[in-house]
Amino acid sequence: MECIFCKIVNEEIPSKAVYKDDFVYAFYDIAPKAPVHILIVPKKHIVSIDEFKEEDNALLLRMFDVARQIAKRKGINETGYRLVLNTGKDAGQTVFHAHMHILGGDTLTDLG
């Protein structure tokens, strides 16, 4: 498979891991848009949020739970953080493996 996130999850491409378990992998974005910019990806290849099936509901919930844990660990839960799930090219999805951005550590004023 040529998916860059699958290669990161499988440790074929190096990344700076923040969290990993049997279902998700979280790592620092290589082009951060905020002082804290972490990506959470399901280990299962799913193209986008639109491709999640009913049997993937627990996985989606796991992504949100991990985001909450990371925000607390990084100290941005007190001041606020943004979770972003881009779905499709018009929304800015550039890697077609579902993923969640955690952005925080400063005032976030734009929608980018």
Descriptive report:
- With about 110 residues, the protein is of the alpha+beta class.
- The protein has 2 helices and 5 strands.
- It has one domain: HIT family, subunit A (2-Layer Sandwich), CATH 3.30.428.
- The termini are far apart.
- About 20% of the residues are buried.
Question: What are the main properties of this structure?
Answer:
112 residues, alpha+beta, HIT family, subunit A, 5-stranded antiparallel beta sheet, 21% helix
What does the secondary structure layout of this molecule look like, with pairings?
Blueprint: H1 4-9, E1 17-20, E2 24-28, E3 36-42, H2 57-74, E4 81-84, E5 100-104
Antiparallel strand pairs: 1-2, 2-3, 3-5, 4-5
| Number of separate strands | 5
Portion of residues within helices: 10-25%
Largest sheet: 5 strands, antiparallel
Tell me the distance between the termini. Answer: 29 Å
Can you give the mean pLDDT?
Answer: 95
The assigned CATH architecture is: 2-Layer Sandwich
From the spread of the alpha carbons, the general shape counts as globular
| Assigned CATH class | Alpha Beta
Our count of helices gives 2
Overall structural class, as computed from helix and strand content, comes to: alpha+beta
Can you list the strand order of the major beta sheet?
A: 1-2-3-5-4
CATH superfamily: HIT-like
Q: Total domains, how many?
A: 1
Determine the CATH topology: HIT family, subunit A
The arrangement of helices and strands along the chain is HEEEHEE
- Uncertain ranges: none
Radius of gyration: 13 Å
Strand content: 15-25%
